[in-house]
Amino acid sequence: MPAITPITQDVLTIPRALPKGPVNLVGLTRAQMRAALIAAGTPEKQAKMRLGQIWQWIYQKGVWDFNAMTNLGKAYRAVLAERFVIALPNVISRQISSDGTRKYLVRITGGHEVEVVYIPEEDRGTLCISSQVGCTLTCSFCHTGTQKLVRNLTAGEIIGQVILVRDDLGEWPDPGEGMGERPRLLSNIVLMGMGEPLYNFENVRDAMKIAMDPEGISLSRRRITLSTSGVVPGIARTAEEIGCMLAVSFHGTTDEVRSNLVPINRKWPIAALLDALRAYPKLSNSERITFEYVMLKGVNDSDEDAHRLVRLIRGIPAKINLIPFNAWPGAPYERPEWGRIKRFADIVYKAGYASPIRTPRGEDIMAACGQLKSATERARTTCR
User: Fold this and answer.
1) Burial level of 30, CB count in 10 A (0-12/13-18/19+)?
2) Residue 63 CA to chain centroid, in angstroms?
3) Furthest-apart CA atoms within the chain: distance in Å
4) How confident is the model at residue 291, as a pLDDT?
5) Mind giving me the DSSP string for 271-335?
6) Do residues 150 and 109 make contact, with C-beta atoms less than 8 angstroms apart?
7) Model confidence, pTM
8) What integer pLDDT is reported at residue 128 of this predicted model?
9) CA dihedral in degrees (97, 261, 270, 11; nearest 10)?
10) 310-322, pLDDT tens digit by residue?
11) Of 139 and 384, which is predicted with more confidence?
């Protein structure tokens, strides 16, 4: 993939510079791709048709060689090959857990790495994707938070994770096979990997619009969940411009505890966050907000915490996803005993909220919630 101008702006306002030389079509919105095709000489009257053809080859059929796009003329294919590329991140390694979870180490422009996790279940296949290299939030229970933020991912690098895993799963249709003729292995996307999605909003939005496009990957917006640690200004934008399901990393029921666990709470405390969340379902027409709650022994797992949590979220259509802490080297926390977690869940459930306890997946390959960190950075830290 051609080099991209280094990013030096604040993460909220990073400009998305186009690479020099051939333009990568992966990650361009429909409007951007149409403009790029016209700039490359495609007549405006043909641009909509050409856009649809190329879009389907890339995102519906998984074809990334212009010469294989057989419904395009040979001369036009030559022009495309001269002016554009279809470039994806590179899979450096793939680990498969004993429970079937797959963790991919993916290398992007500049030699940086992110991790991507695919979790197969009986009724779905969920892909956990990253939005940044590292993270700026330093949540104390999260391994990713110990890796400094390097840069935002581009829209192409975000949707590229989806494309790569679909390819690894063999999910593209065979020649002559129509859409929907085989079961979906990758049916859900969660933006719960490395980084804070709302600190890379435009790229995340564009990538998810591509994932939802009915002439391509064609995932319903209800099959996509964006998880935020509480970037309040981005919550309404997510409802209005993406409309996907929303999850919030909550983890504490007082500002004192939550600020220690999720430092962004000092900027947007619980009251401000809950105000934004109460408006979200009305703006996006989503059914429920998921409150993610990592269970930490002796920190946030008491009966009092459970009762306080229920009081705080009253009036918000919600479920509480209880996550037993997943350990990582040097972690300052422990997982509560099962009985303590179950007691917490029972209190929440009796208050009228679904309170599933997430089964840890991929722990043996460090792919569980809160364990992601690029292999290069993990090795560098271990060697200190």
Assistant:
1) middle
2) 23
3) 70
4) 96
5) HHHHHHHHHHHHHH--S-EEEEEEE-TTTS-SHHHHHHHHHHHTTS-EEEEEEE----TT-S--P
6) no
7) 0.86
8) 96
9) -80
10) 999 998 999 999 9
11) 139
Structure tokens at 257: 């505890």
345's tokens:
């869940």
What value does the mean pLDDT take over residues 233-256?
Answer: 95
Between 108 and 178, where is the model more confident? 108
371/323 Cα distance (integer angstroms) = 12
Asked if pLDDT for residue 13 goes beyond 90, the answer is no
Q: What CATH code would you report for 90-382?
A: 3.20.20.70
What's the average model confidence in pLDDT over 61-80?
96
Give 94-147 pLDDT, tens digit per residue: 999 988 999 999 999 889 999 999 999 988 999 999 999 988 777 777 776 567
Q: Tell me the pairing of strands 102-107 and 90-96.
A: antiparallel
Phi, psi for residue 299 in degrees, rounded to 5: -110, -50
Name every residue whose Cβ is closer than 8 Å to that of residue 34 and which is 6 or more positions away in sequence: 47, 48, 51
**Letter for the amino acid at 225?**
T
49 Cβ partners below 8 Å, 6+ apart? none
What's the one-letter identity of residue 308? Answer: R
Take residue 200 and report the two structure tokens written for it. Answer: 């890379």
Q: Where are the domains of the chain?
A: 23-85, 90-382
Residue with tokens 């991919």: 104
How many angstroms separate the CA atoms of 145 and 136, rounded?
Answer: 7
Which pLDDT belongs to residue 327? Answer: 79
Angstrom distance (rounded) from CA 337 to CA 80: 59
Q: How confident is the model at residue 271 (pLDDT cuts 50, 70, 90)?
A: very high
**Per-residue confidence (pLDDT) for residue 304, from 0 to 100:** 98
With contact defined as beta carbons under 8 Å apart, do 297 and 334 qualify?
A: yes
Q: How many CA atoms lie within 13 A of 50 on its CB side?
A: 23
Query: Using CA atoms, how far apart are residues 41 and 80, in angstroms rounded to an integer?
Result: 10
Architecture field, domain 23-85: Orthogonal Bundle (1.10)
Distance in angstroms (rounded) separating the CA atoms of residues 301 and 281: 28
The alpha carbons of the chain give a radius of gyration, in whole angstroms, of: 21
Q: How many residues does the chain have?
A: 384
Residues annotated catalytic, as ranges: 115, 369
